[in-house]
Design a protein that fits this description.
- With 277 residues, the chain is α/β, with parallel strands linked by helices.
- The chain has one domain: NAD(P)-binding Rossmann-like Domain (Rossmann fold, 3-Layer(aba) Sandwich).
- 47% of the residues lie in helices and 15% in strands.
- It is built from 9 helices and 9 strands.
- The strands form 2 sheets. Strands 3-2-1-4-6-7-9 form a 7-stranded parallel sheet, sandwiched between helices.
- Helix 3 runs parallel beside helix 4.
- The radius of gyration is 20 Å and the shape is globular.
- The protein starts with a strand and ends in a 6-residue tail after the last helix.
């Protein structure tokens, strides 16, 4: 049975690969882009299956209009994929106010408003699925990516909460958490002006790795997209989906460390309870 998908950020990276794979198997896709010519060849080759929407996620009014028009156009959307976003690199002190505002407006607020705009339609059609493309960076951190992590940790908290709120309506969520993957993420990074004082710090070390292309990348973009589609097709997908060996090992190590630290604080934690008479 064919499905209909709404995918933000369909012109590059995982969004583009997902769009191409879904069209190839016969599904319908509404894909958002920021340039009108970004996917013209796909629109021509799949005129009956593919519709392109010009959208910038930082425009909340445009997000709502795009969702409303998409549901009106096709009647039912089975899967909404919140994929659009980008990375911002720089020590927290180095980032400009404008960079911070744009990162959160795109990755966090834009994703929140996309989901919020979709929920009334998904409820009225009796259910549906939302895929939020996050990152291993929604559960771990690298020096130099503080605002990127803030956006990913933030959207994961929002999604986990909303998933509980709308489960009675037949709406469920998948948070996809890829590790480093062979997309153009690094090339598209917004970079802060570096401060010399951070040169010999963990942030400076990561900066050199990023600049030199020295990050070891095990993740395959095509395989990553295949795993997301398979999860979205399944009857009972996991809320969180770690993708790639790096993501799995890093998230596992971070969760284990946090749990160990929590267990060590048990007595202190319980001491803060109100004492019963």
């Amino acid at each position: 049975m064919t499905k209909t998908w709404f995918i933000t950020g369909a012109s590059s990276g995982l969004g583009r690969i997902m769009t191409e794979k879904l069209l190839g198997r016969g599904d319908r896709v509404i894909g958002t882009v920021r340039r009108t010519d970004a996917l013209s060849h796909l629109a021509s080759a799949h005129a009956d299956q593919f519709h392109v929407v010009l959208l910038d996620l930082i425009d909340t009014g445009a997000v709502r209009a795009a969702i409303d028009q998409a549901f009106e156009r096709v009647g039912r959307i089975d899967v909404v994929v919140s994929n659009a976003g980008y990375g911002l690199f720089g020590a927290g002190e180095e980032l400009s106010d404008e960079q911070i505002d744009r990162q959160l407006a795109t990755n966090l607020t834009g994703s929140i408003q996309l989901i919020r705009a979709s929920l009334p339609h998904l409820r009225s059609q009796g259910g549906g699925r939302v895929v939020q493309v996050s990152s291993e960076g929604g559960q771990i951190t690298y020096p130099g990516f503080s605002l990127y992590h803030a956006s990913k940790w933030g959207i994961e908290g929002f999604v986990e909460t909303v998933a509980q709120e709308v489960a009675p309506f037949g709406i469920d969520f998948i948070i996809a958490e890829p590790g480093p993957t062979d997309t153009n993420f690094g090339a598209a990074l917004d970079r802060a002006e570096p401060f010399g004082i951070y040169e010999e710090t963990p942030a400076g070390e990561v900066r050199r790795l990023v600049a030199g292309g020295e990050f070891v990348i095990h993740g395959d973009a095509g395989n990553t997209v295949d795993a997301i589609i398979e999860a979205a097709d399944s009857d009972h997908p996991p809320l969180r989906l770690a993708l790639g060996s790096t993501a799995f090992e890093n998230i596992r190590a971070a969760l284990t460390k946090r749990l160990e630290a929590l267990e060590a604080q048990r007595d202190v934690a319980f001491s803060a309870d109100r004492k019963e008479d």
